[in-house]
Amino acid sequence: MSETEDRKAASRPDAPIDAQIDDGTQVFFDQTRDAVPVGQSGQLPASPTDAKSAKPHYHGHRQRLRERFLKGGANALADYELLELLLCMAMPRGDVKPLAKSLIAQFGSFANVLAARPEDLQKAKGLGEAGIAAIKVAEASAQYLARERAMELPVLASWEQLIDYCRVRLGHRKTEELHLLFLDRKNRLIADECHQTGTVDHTPVYPREVIKRALELHASAIILVHNHPSGDATPSRGDIDMTRKIVEAAKAMEIIIHDHIIISQAGYNSFKTLGLI
């Protein structure tokens, strides 16, 4: 075989070559695409330059999504479109609309997708590490923004912002968590800490540990917050008894328990409003 023929053979492999792209998508490069077939009419197709300039069908769709979002905000997009726009920034190749719809169907809502555990997201077909990272960054950003707004004013003077923050933080958790919001003398938020994590309907709480942590942070007041994954924010007998024990322990150390808030996806309840504190 001549040197010229040898080069031609090397540039026209019989089988396509696949390459893994680091954004979690698989792209196949078929080097036989350089061949120039003749159509049935005997005419040559468009030039290779025209073929290379052709864009995938989803290119214009992504641009339209961005424009709609920038003009109208989140309300201008359906929930799956908002998730699609998020994913396409992490996964620049491929049509991510089917993946976005699949995730919404699997987890139930856009908010549930953001709140899903990384190990659960890993089970979703077609979602790679880049996509999971984008989702969790979006969740962390929402929590950070809600927390900053809650800290702008004394907590008791910005109650709605506090509730929004608690719902973002705990509303979509699948197991119960007890969070302690520690406040200074001006009722400004010092820290938000997860004190205990339990099962779907029970979280163990130790009043002594709650007060100990408040003293370490030099907190003057505490707001208890925990979630009910069942969706019912009604306080249980256990919730009421536990709260009373913490209130009694706090009184001895001159620490105020302002409230105990129960968060669920459907809403919330306040012990203060219910007359339980």
Automatic annotation (TrEMBL):
Sequence ranges of Basic and acidic residues compositional bias: 1-11
Note the Pfam families from the entry: RadC (PF04002), UPF0758_N (PF20582)
CDD domains recorded: MPN_DUF2466
Residues forming the MPN domain are 155-277
InterPro entries listed in its UniProt record: MPN, RadC_JAB, RuvA_2-like, UPF0758, UPF0758_CS, UPF0758_N
Keyword 4Fe-4S on entry: no
* Biological process per Gene Ontology, one example term: proteolysis
Q: Which domain of life is it from?
A: Bacteria
The record's GO molecular-function terms, alphabetically, read: metal ion binding; metallopeptidase activity
Q: Where is this region: Disordered?
A: 1-22, 37-61
Q: Which UniProt keywords apply?
A: Hydrolase, Metal-binding, Metalloprotease, Protease, Zinc
The family assignment reads: Belongs to the UPF0758 family.
- List, alphabetically, the NCBIfam families matched: PRK00024.1, radc
What is this protein's name? DNA repair protein RadC
Upper classification of the source organism reads:
Bacteria, Pseudomonadati, Pseudomonadota, Alphaproteobacteria, Rhodospirillales
